[in-house]
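Internal QA ticket QA-208
Title: Verify multi-chain structure generation after dependency bump
Assignee: T.L.

Test input:
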Amino acid sequence: MSLGGEWYLAVAAALFTIGAVGLLVRRNVLVMFMCVELMLNAVNLTFVTFARMLDDIGGQALVFFVLVVAAAEVVVGLGIIVSIFRRRAAATADDLHILKG
Amino acid sequence: MAALGAALLAQVAPSGGAADQLQPLRLPSVEYSAMVPHLILLGSALALLLAVSLVRPRPGKGLYAWFTVAAGAASGVAAWMKWREVVVHGSYRAVANALVVDGFACFMMIVIAVAVVLGALLADSYLRREGLDGPEFYVLVLLSAAGGMFMATANDLIVLFLGLEILSIALYVLTGYHRRRAESREAAMKYFILGAFSSALFLYGIALMYGATGSTNLVEIGSFLAQNVVTNDGLLLAGLVLILVGLGFKVAAVPFHAWTPDVYQGAPTPVTGFMAAAAKAAGFAGLLRVLFTTFGSQRLDWQPLVWALAVLTLLVGSTLAVVQSDIKRMLAYSSISHAGYVLIGLQAATDRGIAGSLYYLLAYTFMVLGSFAVVTLVGRRGDDAHDLDNYRGLATRRPALALAFTVLLMAQAGIPFTTGFLAKFYVIGAAVQAHSYALALIGMVAAVIAAFFYLRVIVLMYTPLSDEDAAAAPRIPLPFGTGVVLVVAVAFTLAFGIAPQPMIEFARQASHNLLF
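Actual output:
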């Protein structure tokens, strides 16, 4: 039995939504960060599925670019998180209140 | 880029029945000559990093800054030579159609190069004052500008995405560069989270677009849309909206502006200036390219969206700027409202509108970098004297500085005989010509509101100080590099405000090849 591409797209969309909602509602910076990764990987799944549906290898190649960018983002993001929360017990976004956005 | 990937993977992919029969590896030719301006920036960033790792650096001489200025200027000259080439021989595409070199791209590259030069001059004295001098800052500025240039020349959504990320990731670090200031670190965190969120949305938009049209190449998508009627256009429209949102974040259009005031306030002041100039220019370069090259035929779909964005951006930017008591937050909201004016030109979707938007971006680069030069100086050591009260009586303490800031603020407000006035005039004129009367009217109303808070700062500066206040006020040194930035910014703003023809002609020519 094989599932149609639409199912994969639906899973990807669900993952992307979970990531986006998680980013907006969670307060722990590390979890927010993981949500971003979830969103990027949902996009990867979408790319691969479309590549398969369109029978075009280009979409799969794009995933590599996204992976590299995600890795670079992780490095910088974790660096920033460490620099902020080095002297604090918990990594919650509520502690970031000097600038009133 | 998709073609490049296809060629690379063609070898690995099983091809029908004869899996053992490998296709020859087809690599696209990489025309390095098409990306000389980018390569100069990238190369000098790497050279700087390498040189200071090999040779024990002697900081405090401004060496890094002047190196960066030279690199930025060289890149700008290279972009100018590309411009001459394009004017004579026409635009061309390179690297398997992933890049395009046309007048528009060259114009944007020149704007970004200007931001690098002025930003580096501004950063030099700031970093030494704060005890932060080091090559990393300049390396990051050069890399981020290279990302911006890739956005300007991108002819493929993935190249656009990569450029956006190179620009943004370097900017996240730059925002947190003032390690000892909690505000700076916090701004970096906020910028990072929201920036990553917006890039993810942008990327999902690309994926949906790829699914709907089968390509990520801007021109291919454009011709696909011109030839086919997409019956089920849900994917396409969702993709378009997500791409618009992602780039809207970068250019700080309302309702995607939430990060702007915090990041502008928290970031080291020269970084704020560079970010305001370069990131906005690059973001708009991407936005203009995508909307016109690719979705030119779908303009009836996106024009209402851009209209709504422009109205919100103008009104929210100008009204919220009025209630700020921190100059950097005020300039942040003013930069939001400037984005609104660029969107007016974009919404018109005519020759004149695009030329107006381009001219606006060029004029804005000088105005905003000059303004943040003043803010850097008044901010003093520690970079935290940004309350409006610090500007009280600036004219008695530093008449030249106050005069320069007055000119720059008047230009931002759109007072005649400055580039700021002409920029507003052209975009609003384009809106009228395109029969967007309501938008033109809102633009004028926003300009009136905005004039209030610019004038408030000017009045504060010219309020006389009592003698003991004047004696107590801290002395404001004027370093050479910052002085150069101020002179250049004011000179450009006034000279091309009085004799605008060359710059307008420049913007008009650059806008030509964007519209079919």
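Spot checks passed. Chain A has three helices and no strands.
Status: verified.
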